[in-house]
Amino acid sequence: MSKQSADGVPVQDYPTATTVSEFEHNLGQVRANIAAAAARAGRDPSDVRLLPVSKTVPEERIRLAVAAGCHELGENKVQEAKRKAEELADLGVAWSVIGHLQTNKARDVAAFAAEFQALDSARVAAALDRRLQAAGRSLDVYVQVNTSAEPQKYGLAPEEVEAFLRELPNYAALRVRGLMTLAIFSRDVPAVRACFTRLRDLRDRIRDTDPELVGDGGLSMGMSGDYEVAVEEGATCVRVGQAVFGARATADGDYWPGAAGIADGA
User: Fold this and answer.
1) Is 199 domain-assigned?
2) Which residues carry this modification: N6-(pyridoxal phosphate)lysine (predicted)?
């Protein structure tokens, strides 16, 4: 279990992993925390997928992480993800793009990514579908939802999601796997939990209406500072960076809008 501060927020110093054994330790700790959170919620921990997030991590350390058991990795920025996918092609890593995508980067994502977790517009869906069709590929996608209602964050408003999902069958190369969100970056655990609860409730309502709209009904939510809460609220994928790789020097605001100085971005 993570240590808890007086206000209930998990406290971690996120030591940097520089050996295979240190990565194995960090991964083991995260998986143990996932299992404990799942047990508290009466869930099977095997239903929760751990997606390690390697943003800002140099290639030599990623090789150590892969040797420790990381065979899929998440990246926020397409340019960084593309470079790593090319330089680490020998490792057979499945790359997940989890950050906002501009349409002019759709070609790159279509070329290397196994998954895209931040779909939030028909323009991006159309651009990805066109590039994927040309490449003869398909792509797993999650629809990003702004459950915190923060104007600086990407993602659809919850009330817009069902209509957007109904458009996606027009893009045959996209396979909808579920919904994704970033909780509010706050030490207020109930406020963080409410973001996750909103995503789960939204998924449940849409699934009750038309289960095919949300595909597998996955919920990608939770990062290093809040993934245990996310698991308690139904996460099927947690995106964990610093708790696996160690603290990063780059400000999270460079990767997640509105995140700088408040909480770790993954």
Assistant:
1) yes
2) 55
pLDDT in tens, 225-235: 999 999 999 99
Question: Which are the contacts of 1, defined by CB distance < 8 A and separation ≥ 6?
Answer: 32, 33, 36
pLDDT at 251 over 80: no
Cα-based distances in Å from 173 to 131, 134, 192, 227, 239:
9, 10, 33, 30, 24
**Considering the domain boundaries, does residue 243 fall inside one?**
no
Domain containing 30 equals 13-238
- Are the beta carbons of 70 and 52 closer than 8 angstroms? yes
**174 DSSP β-pair partners:** 139
Q: Using CA atoms, how far apart are residues 246 and 165, in angstroms rounded to an integer?
A: 36
Position 43 scores a pLDDT of 98
- The CATH number of whichever domain residue 231 belongs to comes to 3.20.20.10
Mean pLDDT of 245-252: 74
The mean per-residue pLDDT over the stretch 87-102 comes to 97
pTM of the model: 0.90
Cα–Cα distance measured from residue 239 to residue 14, given in angstroms and rounded to the nearest whole number: 15
3-state secondary structure of 244: helix
Q: How far is it, in rounded angstroms, from Cα 207 to Cα 94?
A: 28
In a domain, 2, yes or no: no
In a domain, 216, yes or no: yes
